[in-house]
């Protein structure tokens, strides 16, 4: 399993609605499929780049999909694990909505936002929201995570926990982050505000 590639950015380009980057790693060029937002943040050709990758193997192809942040790679993996959501649709979702926006749309069942992505219809959006929220909720329960935060409503606390899990953070990291930001977030009832604060705290730790 190739979890990341780091090397010289050799070329970038679009193909059939998808984008890609070729990374020269020790003289071997790895083509990594991605989306336009990632391409827009890449360094110049000839400069070093690191992409967090997920390899998808099928009968007729072996492809690498890459992102600048490990959390986006984890979310992409969650998306393509849903029945009917292939890599192309997963990339379309991540190109249309930023990772935190996409996670919130899934958790809140906002099918209108999800359906903004090319190729994602209402039924697909409903299935995506239902399957991923159910899966994350089960993972949350199995990990023994708290159901109620001391300084936020149970709904807000649960949504933030699920969002952080979807972005690839471990249950222990999630609990520590929410405990750390809770004093500063006293009285705050907006999921987005808690999520931003928790991600900022986690980023500082690493």
What is the topology?
Elements: E1 4-15, E2 18-25, E3 28-34, H1 36-40, E4 48-58, E5 61-67, H2 70-80, H3 87-96, H4 99-107, H5 111-114, H6 122-142, H7 154-166, H8 171-181, H9 191-205
Parallel strand pairs: 3-5
Antiparallel strand pairs: 1-2, 1-4, 2-3, 4-5
Helix pairs in contact: 2-3, 4-7, 6-7, 7-9, 8-9
Q: In summary, what is this structure?
A:
The chain is α+β, with helices and mostly antiparallel strands. The chain is 48% helix and 22% strand. Helix 2 (70-80) packs across helix 3 (87-96), helix 7 (154-166) packs across helix 9 (191-205) and helix 8 packs across helix 9 (191-205).
Notes on the protein architecture:
The longest helix has 21 residues, at 122-142. With 206 residues, the protein is an alpha+beta fold. It has two domains: 4-67, OB fold (Dihydrolipoamide Acetyltransferase, E2P), CATH 2.40.50; 71-206, DNA polymerase, domain 1 (Orthogonal Bundle), CATH 1.10.150. Helix 7 (154-166) crosses helix 9. The chain has helices at 36-40, 70-80, 87-96, 99-107, 111-114, 122-142, 154-166, 171-181, 191-205; strands at residues 4-15, 18-25, 28-34, 48-58, 61-67. The two termini are 23 Å apart. It is globular. Strands 1-2-3-5-4 form a five-stranded mixed β-barrel. InterPro entries: DNA_helicase_Holl-junc_RuvA_I, Hlx-hairpin-Hlx_DNA-bd_motif, NA-bd_OB-fold, RuvA, RuvA_2-like, RuvA_C, RuvA_C_sf. This is Holliday junction branch migration complex subunit RuvA.
């Amino acid at each position: 399993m190739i979890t990341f590639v780091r090397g010289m950015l050799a070329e970038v380009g679009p193909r059939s609605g998808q984008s890609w980057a070729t990374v020269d790693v020790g003289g071997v060029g790895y083509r990594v499929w991605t989306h336009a937002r990632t391409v827009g943040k890449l360094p110049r050709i000839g400069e070093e780049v690191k992409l967090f990758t997920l390899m998808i193997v099928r009968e007729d192809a072996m492809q690498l999909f890459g992102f600048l942040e490990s959390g986006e790679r984890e979310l992409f993996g969650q998306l393509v694990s849903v029945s009917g959501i292939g890599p192309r649709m997963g990339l379309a979702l991540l190109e249309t909505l930023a990772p935190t926006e996409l996670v919130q749309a899934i958790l809140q069942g906002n099918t209108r936002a999800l359906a903004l992505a090319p190729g994602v219809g209402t039924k697909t959006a409903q299935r995506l929201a239902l399957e991923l929220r159910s899966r994350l909720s089960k993972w949350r329960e199995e990990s023994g995570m708290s159901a109620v935060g001391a300084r936020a409503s149970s709904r807000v606390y649960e949504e933030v926990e699920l969002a952080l899990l979807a972005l690839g953070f471990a249950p222990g990291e999630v609990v520590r982050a929410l405990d750390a930001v809770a004093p500063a977030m006293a009285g705050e009832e907006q999921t987005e505000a808690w999520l931003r604060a928790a991600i900022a705290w986690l980023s500082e730790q690493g």
